[in-house]
Amino acid sequence: MPQGKLASWLVYPGRDTPLAIRAALVSTLFGTLPIFLGGVFNTIAVAAALAYRHPSPLFLFWLFSEIAVCLARLVLLVLSHRRAEQGKPTPTDLYILLAPLWGATVGYGALISATSGDWVAATLSFLSAAAMVGGICFRNFAAPRLVAIMIFLSLGPCCIGAVLSGEPVLLLTLVQIPFYLFAMSVAAKKLNVMLISTMEAERENDRRARHDGLTGLLNRAGLFHAVTYELSEATHKGAGAPVFYLDLDGFKAVNDAYGHECGDKLLIQVAARLRHLAGPNALVARMGGDEFVIVDQPPYAAEPRAFANSVIAEIEKPFHLTDDVTVRIGASIGIATVTGDGSAIDTVLESADVAMYEAKRNKKKRELAT
Asked: Record's CDD domains (predicted)?
């Protein structure tokens, strides 16, 4: 994400959006190399042709400016892609701020061409500026403000050149270009809104696919994804991440005695207690029914057995389901470890599940013995 105020203002999507979506929108501004090179070829080729036709300081300055800005943006584009692949910060601010400068060089070329008295130069530079606008809108609509500024800087000088040229027919651009600027800016804005709405819908669908609808915890698919992608680096850096497989003791009796509504309330309250105990760095999931999993993250993992005992103690406290219904249940927990040696999460969960049922059997034996 850009850090400076100006670059941040230029890429503001027009409404408050989650940071992840804003970052994805900014990433689209970097685009692909073939699209970028197409615009570079257009602007430099036109500037070079007209500098050859008019080897004056004004046209030579235009050519060198085009080359300098395009070369700088190309270097930053390649550098940004490489650093992004490495997970390192990218020169986003500088790359974004060079975009309006590129538009300004195109507009400068149109201005000096219109005032040169050369109809060929004026036609070619105006066509180049108009061609740039399509690419600007198509490539940058994730940032509507940036689109509007770039179009203004590219086509605005055409209006000034038309006035200074002394050619009455060129004054038609004073009507054409403002409408064109308005139409393309509105189009970019609408495309931006559609893109954000699509991304938000995709995020919501993804969230629903990976979260339990009742408790809001991760579901099995969400847990597998999180362990695979979120814990991989942590488990390589430190000790293995402990996995706690928890099954509620006495849940079925509550569900049968008081109905599914009370059963659901009980599961929701259990989930809330587990989230609170596990803390922000742990993964908490409902595997289905009354089974839950907690995966702690190293190096912040508590001593596994002590943590398991604290979870059991918390679950054994009373649950107030309605004004008239207060219940007590228990929990059995099995412990396994996710390591950085490629251990599959399903294998680890199976080990924790086996340990959990062993703990449940031992508890029943103790109860029978007493």
From this structure: GGDEF
